[in-house]
Amino acid sequence: xxxxxxxxxxxxxxxxxxxxxxxxxxxxxxxxxxxxxxxxxxxxxxxxxxxxxxxxxxxxxxxxxxxxxxxxxxxxxxxxxxxxxxxxxxxxxxxxxxxxxxxxxxxxxxxxxxxxxxxxxxxxxxxxxxxxxxxxxxxxxxxxxxxxxxxxxxxxxxxxxxxxxxxxxxxxxxxxxxxxxxxxxxxxxxxxxxxxxxxxxxxxxxxxxxxxxxxxxxxxxxxxxxxxxxxxxxxxxxxxxxxxxxxxxx
Length: 250
Ligand code: PGA
Prior knowledge:
Number of domains: 1
Helix content: 40-55%
CATH topology: TIM Barrel
CATH superfamily: Aldolase class I
CATH architecture: Alpha-Beta Barrel
Bound molecules: 2-phosphoglycolic acid
Distance between the termini: 16 Å
CATH class: Alpha Beta
């Protein structure tokens, strides 16, 4: 089953106006030179930069996404942003349930699922993040935790067109520690099997990204694994040459 790799940059809370524009413009320039990219490229800047990043990547084929969105279309939710607002700005995707949202904002699977359903209803594609902590891995709970998070966070009506899963072991995020290709593949295969139990044959078409200290030096061997269909990249997505290096290793 050929799944087109998705190379997604999660800029997190980084960058001022000039940085966002330079990064997006740098990537757009490279992408425009690429005849037939073997990958789909996505950048997810912080909210204040989305508008200008959408402008900067215009005509390059690079897509833009948000890093979170609310369950409601509008209303009294101070500080929140709705999926309709992201779509209105030109976003095509939104990352949901990132471990930093789960930790910093106490987001649980049921909320992630509700957010994902609202985002899909607003016309966005969702990247639903799952992953175990180091303590859970050491206790032998890796498979159970990822299975539970996939079951609990997957939106109703999920299919390969509207949903992407990102497996991000929490212990590998921003730490420089990366899951070995074998460790990652084992979990990706389990996630795909869990998806098959939920959505049947659609699971074969759904992309499952790896995230956690992915770099140009390790991306190739990770993405060569049969169930790894791209990356969700944090630190290395903030430098044009690193992010591009990862994309080119598809
Ligand atoms: P990292 O972050 O690449 O900096 O480890 C990945 C992520 O949190 O999405």
